[in-house]
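A quick aside before the break. I want you to see a complete sequence-to-structure record at least once, exactly as it would be stored in a machine-readable document. Don't worry about memorizing anything.
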Amino acid sequence: MAYTRIKICGITRPEDAQVAVANGADAIGLVFYAKSPRAVDTARAVEIVAEVAPFVTVVALFVDASQSTIEQVLAAVPVDVIQFHGQESATYCEQFERPYLKAVRVKPGLDLGAAVAPYGRARGVLLDSWQDGVPGGTGKTFDWQLASGRIARPMVLAGGLDAANVGAAMAQLQPAGVDVSGGVESAPGIKCPRRIAEFVRAVRAADLINSGDE
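That is the input. The structure line, written in tokens, reads:
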């Protein structure tokens, strides 16, 4: 059976990390971007990561952060992967010598292949929805057809996913991973255990269908 990796992003509480892991999430995301309603500081991030089981990936999300800011977080928090969600160049991303994902916000007219080409050393490309002035967490999907067959890199799909639409998204794009935040919340930054469980079940059901093992 195909196995699509699941990341629950925007974790702000240790108990939400516990629920995500208990339901089978492969990764959790910590947002180090002060303008986000899901932002955490290093002290809270350390508390959250303490509740994460071995072999669950901890992803730190930054948006055009300074080098010193990122280095301070990496020194304090046991981060496995960095997610760059701004306008960071490949050279900037690679200087930290840590596995990374590069987010690209998709909109009509974007040459997606050209946008991701410089990031050849990234572990994957995360596709999110474009909204002017908002780097992510919009809660809106984009036209998945804009990404179909456009990139050869491992793809992580984000942007408005929830239990009701993730199966259709996976059928169309067959991503290596899916990334959800608002779609499993009861309020910004507060995860809902029921919605997390429903999302994970929907992804695994789609894996079965896409593998022909249904």
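Two observations worth writing down. The radius of gyration is 16 Å. The mean pLDDT is 93. We'll return to this after the break.
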